[in-house]
TrEMBL record, chains A, B:
InterPro entries: Isoprenoid_synthase_dom_sf, Polyprenyl_synt, Polyprenyl_synt_CS. One of its GO terms (molecular function) is prenyltransferase activity. The keyword Magnesium applies. This is Geranylgeranyl diphosphate synthase, type II. One of its GO terms (biological process) is isoprenoid biosynthetic process. Belongs to the FPP/GGPP synthase family. It comes from the Bacteria. The keyword Transport does not apply. Keywords: Magnesium, Metal-binding, Transferase. Its cofactor is Mg(2+). Gene3D superfamilies: Farnesyl Diphosphate Synthase (1.10.600.10).
């Protein structure tokens, strides 16, 4: 059994290859360009770990992991068009570098390429994995659409936000684990639990991400704090603050979002703290982490097999923040 | 065994249903809107006919046919964005009605929905159909990219144009027939022939389409003649004329394309006729039609089974024009 880091290294080696034919270069170079940036490859590694939770590593897990990573990158290319984002992680986005039409088409062909990897999986497991992949892919599109809708909709409830986050990011983490589990020979009951582990872990991670963007230590967090606040992004913290704050605080918040004063971040953080949004978010994160770990506990395999996934959860969800 | 019209009626009934969940309506309504326009449904019917060439109609052919039709519609939604087309067949396009971001995303989700139909096919046939579908889908993207590239590239050879047309339109017709053939239990050899029949028929059809746009009887053709010439579209006729005409004629053609005079269509047609491009195109069409029919002849089934496909070829490719 391997750790997250060992799986990540193995997958990076496997995935560091050309993914598309040479020609037509106008179609395939943009995809190669985007994939060459690397990345944490969390989802494919979760697929490999989901497999090893139940059995020896099935070589088809690398096909499934590749499909998942290609799918994830397809969503990033199309999301960047929709967000009109000039940069991603400091690199020029595909539509910015190659034009929008090519970005649409190279995203499309990356999604199809993902299915080409699925098609290579042993037919013993492939139909079940294809169904899970399809459902998940459609849910991710739903999440992206809800995210777009919410930006234009002033009243979004916490439940609606959790639903959006679940669809947009958590179901793919969950499906990555379950896909590996299927290839490891897991029973349907165990598949359900590993899926729920991933889904709840994903929500906990997003709560933490929103929290750190507001209250994190900039050195540990790795990016400037307050970005979400500056952009008026709907986050767990903002939605909670709007839900529990006094009418005066609500008016203050809306006013700050409209006026964008220079000290907006500090003022919004003051209101967040006054509403105990920081404490509430820490508890919410713990709640989802605990739910995730409960599902991991329920999985009927030896505890020693669960250790790498427990480590992953602890690595992703920091308790000291 | 059924005729094209009977299959078309059966498929129209089957396909006249909601294709997506109700919610989120912002994601799924645009797809329902686009699919509600109807259409000739040529590809799904070719799938059903490919099945019946070899055996009793397999109910899974309707799943495969739905996947193919959804895939085709996905390409239209994304192509319309790329072409910035305000209308398609007189209807407001998806990106024009709902915005570009929603058009990208509802195209994406339509492609995924296509794969959900593939996933429902009996596992006896599904892996082979998935592979064919994937390869074809990727080729269609290649064809679309080549089409975009060619618009910006002044020197395109006839072979390059045929390659582009083959990828952009013919391979999907070919794969529709072969998918049905697989579900009808066809051998690999027969599958190859039915694929080649569809591919060559598709090329013949495109040659005819280019021909009719220039030389067709407007009443029979159903749309205004000369549209391709007015838009300086690269067509079989233009590429041939540029290849065989005298230096003076070439200069005249380029001049007409640059200046766009009021009588451009008539002047270009005069040059086409002077180069015998009309006669050449008729011969080229016949050549591909003959190749198609030769492959149909090679298929090892009783001739009576081939009758509906021969009728289809005669219906699509008019000999009197």
């Amino acid at each position: 059994m391997q750790t997250f880091k060992e799986h990540a290294a193995a997958f990076a080696t496997y995935f560091s290859t050309r993914h598309f034919p040479e020609s037509p270069a106008t179609l395939y170079e943009p995809g190669e360009y985007f994939l060459s940036w690397g990345g944490k490859r969390i989802r494919p590694v979760m697929c490999l770990m989901g497999n090893e939770l139940f059995g020896e590593l099935n070589p088809d897990s690398f096909e499934a992991a590749s499909a998942i990573e290609l799918f994830h990158n397809f969503t990033l290319i199309h999301d960047d068009i929709m967000d009109a984002a000039p940069l991603r992680r400091g690199m020029v986005t595909v539509h910015e570098k190659y034009g929008q039409n090519t970005a649409i088409l190279s995203g499309d062909v990356m999604l199809i390429r993902a299915y080409e990897h699925i098609a290579k999986i042993n037919t013993l497991y492939m139909p079940r994995i294809l169904q899970l992949f399809n459902r998940t892919a459609r849910e991710v599109c739903e999440g992206q659409q809800l995210d777009i809708d919410f930006e234009q909709n002033s009243s979004v409830s916490l439940d609606e936000y959790i639903e959006m986050i679940t669809l947009k990011t958590s179901v793919l983490l969950a499906a990555s684990l379950e896909t590996g589990a299927i290839l490891g020979g897991a029973s349907e009951g165990n598949c359900r639990h590993i899926y729920e582990f991933g889904k709840n872990l994903g929500i906990a991670f997003q709560v933490q991400d929103d929290y750190l963007d507001a209250f994190g230590d900039p050195e540990k967090f790795g990016k400037e704090v307050g970005g979400d606040i500056r952009q008026n992004k709907k986050t767990f913290l903002l939605l909670h603050a709007l839900a529990v704050s006094s009418p005066e605080q609500q008016q203050q918040l809306y006013g700050l979002m409209m006026r964008n004063p220079a000290d907006k971040v500090a003022q919004v953080l003051d209101i967040f703290r006054a509403c105990n949004a920081d404490e509430w978010a820490r508890e919410l994160k713990e709640k989802y982490l605990a739910q995730a770990l409960r599902h991991l506990d329920e999985i009927a395999v030896l505890n020693v097999r669960k250790a790498p996934l427990k480590e992953l959860a602890e690595f992703l969800i920091q308790r000291d923040q």
